[in-house]
User: Fold this.
Amino acid sequence: MKIDVLHIAKLANLPLRKEEIKKYEEQLSSILEYIEKLKRAKTDDVLETSQVTNLENITKNDATTPSLSQDEALANTKSQRNGLFKVKAIFE
Amino acid sequence: MNLNSLTIKQARQGLRAKQFSSLELVETHLTEIEKRNKSLNAFLTVCSNEALAKARKADELIKDGQNFPLLGIPIAAKDIFSTKGLKTTAASKVLEDYIPQYNATVIERLQSAGAIIVGKTNMDAWAHGSSGENSDFGPVKNPWNEQYVPGGSSSGSAVSVTSGMAMAATGTDTGGSIRLPASFTNTVGLKPTYGRVSRYGIIAMASSLDSIGHFTKTVEDSALLLRITAGRDKLDATTPPEIVPNYFNSLSNGVKGLKIGVPKEYVLGLESEISNNFNGSLKILKKLGAEIIEISLPSTEYGIACYYIIQPAEVSSNLARYDGIRYGNDRSFFGDEAKRRIMLGTFTLSVGYYEAYYKKAMKIRTLIVNDFENAFTKVDAIISPVSPTKPWKIGEKVNDPLKMYLSDALTVNANLAGIPGLSVPSGFIQGLPVGVQFLGAKFSEALLFRIGYAFEQETKFYQKAPYEL
Amino acid sequence: MNYRVVIGLEAHVELKTQSKMFCSCSADYFGQEPNTHICPVCLGLPGALPVPNQRAIEWCVQIGQALNCHIPLFAKFDRKNYFYPDLPKGYQISQYDQPFCLGGTISVSGKKFGITRVHMEEDTGKLTHGGDVSLIDFNRSGVPLVEIVTEPDFDNAKDVKAYLQKLQQIVRYLGVSDADMEKGQMRLEPNISVSLDTKSKELPRYKVEVKNINSFGFVEKAVNFEIKRQLEILQSGKTPVQETRGWDENKNATVSQRVKEEANDYRYFPEPDIPPIRWTQKQIDQLKLSLPILPDEAVEKAIALNIKVADAVRVSESVQVFSTFMGAAPIAAQHGITAQGVANFIINNKKMDVSGTTPAELVTEIVNLSKNEDVNKDELRAIVQKVIKDNPKIAEDYKKGKDSVIQFAIGQVMYAIKKKIDVNIVRKLILEELK
Assistant:
């Protein structure tokens, strides 16, 4: 099973160097080959499990608590201007 | 005998009895870190000054008669736990300079109980790994033999405890990342029931699989920590309201009359030495009065495949926030393993493949959940080896990702089912530690501690250390 | 018409809850200092986890109920994965295949339109562009958004605008959103296609999504522009590209935004951090019972008070005015004023802010207007004297016994004083002066 690594990397917003593509293709192929064994399992009338807590209806009240300060919010960014996060221009 | 060979229980007694101070206790551990960390690479960040200041404070509180359960005790935190004001990297270059503005709930709870963090431990980057070799900041070495891996992904935490650098260390177990390194380092590793301990503030790997636990020298210490970290957190919607029992009430009840199951699928394909060691453990339990029963967990063989679809899928989504805009470096700083898992996850969730892979895996997960539920109607707990092999040499599996994944074969199913697991030392093979794990139904930690305690007190492996402490 | 227009509408409504959808930051972000209403959760910091806002969920259900939707007993959240700088987690928590509300209807302009679904999601941060950089404010990130999707039942811009106005009215009546388009509290994204095949009922094979319509004024313009644009392409023998376009108010045109060869693959999967929601039928029924009055019912109630239909619609435009009207009608009746009279006042009045007035105050105002005004007696006498002096015929005719000249005199006085005063006072004064 071959993965279109270029397409997937794009979807995953991962910059890949040309030299890496082949390596990942091979590694991911072999992993996928192993995973194929899943298809042998019989799951005809089986429901999916997406959570194992069996919890339901966990919500919170509509009340506010203090937010981070602007300084705290921006503390870890490498690029800011006037209290805003700054990135290269995005053209809509 | 140095202070860092004590268990937490002993240290608390000693502190209360004024036999030594918290300052001395913390200093001893910091000295050990200074001595050993260069070669073991267990710590990424050491906060000596803060730890010493806190130790002095703890001594004052102890003098005042305060008795918080972890008062004055030095612990380490896996560098995946957010610590306010203290660098948290997940051992990845993406976060190499990230300083959280808030504490993980577990850190708050441990600190409220008086624990003193001495540093943040090294790990496989993003918790992706089973050996400790996937760190962007160099592999962690096994103090029992530095040419060997200590297991991962909570490699540094396991090593910090066994080598006397911390009295306990926090960890996460998504597919075995506490139990495996515990078994490779002669420590007790607890993977609690999913949701037993809050995930808030812990860098997410796979949201429906991440279990928050810890390493200690003994089972009793482990119970002490769980009593503090466990319980509902309103900031984590996946923490059930189950009350946290007093784990000490039943700790020394022994195993007489308990039915302990051995899944026949778990004893296939083991290295012969592991097999022998495991059989030895069964003998001990029988001697202690437990009934050993063979059971079957028929969907075991699909565990790894199922895990390596669900986990990377959730990983690919959880790692999407790392774009370098609000914190950290951009995505080009991800290491190979992270990239692999992100791509694998993106693929199995993508249009055309979701049904065949992700949806299918979710169904198999149901089968695995059912396997365990069935089993626990027949037995009280399950015992199995933790790793199909003994610890391997550093570099041996690093170029074969799939081979590395297969070392999780005996641990992943507990994560898929959300059940708790306790890894307890079960001996040594050519000087390298090996462990055994007890698995139980959800919220059966009290029972696991009870079994683990009986086993540990009989075998006393915890008294061994990798070198003179 | 030799072509067919197919329009489906996606509207987003910002809920005016106190706190955000998945965290406890204040949701009142408009006009605040940037990045001051954020926390680890809505900033997408490592390790943060979402916990859903109970009130937001209930309001979403009520919006669905107001739109006659079916409320399934089981619903869950899902992750919608895509990358954009204003999306801090790299995914949006939304709902995919098990939303809170399904299959409803809405009546607009005498027609019925289908509502496909109503679901809950979270808003993104706000991007502003300046030169060679873009700037991000995350105050809006995590604010609760309700998405309402209609069936592709629309075929003209007028209906689209009317729908949007009705939707705004409904959510304002519900009190769950101010739905102010200029503030971004309500957003519309029409999906528009055109087909030259007027016989077939099949959906055209492409559709164009239009974004960035931020006022009612632009709704009709954008839709009409797009219909025209697509028609021209079709008539030239080509098929319009399936894409997202933005309304450019400077160009008065839609502009191609992101030309993507492939549609975005959102890789939806169930949100593992949030347990699902399971209602009991009793809870659903309770939410329905606690719905406040809605616009259609309000109009009916007004009509039942015997006022003209058009006027009933007018006084029901806003729930505050309707409320004042309904409260005022019985009070007005005690003063001999009909409901229609109250309605007339409300509709014609330019000075008073009816929505901010109590019913009692409103009635007082109406009553006062129909009363006579007070006047200064001396001022009046002076005017009467002047009128008599300027019009000698008044005194002459009166002496001759022609009483009708008094009416003339009254008229002159009333004209001079320009106030609505009691004519009996005027007559009395005139007669006094003539003596």
The helical segments of chain A are 5-11, 18-35, 70-74.
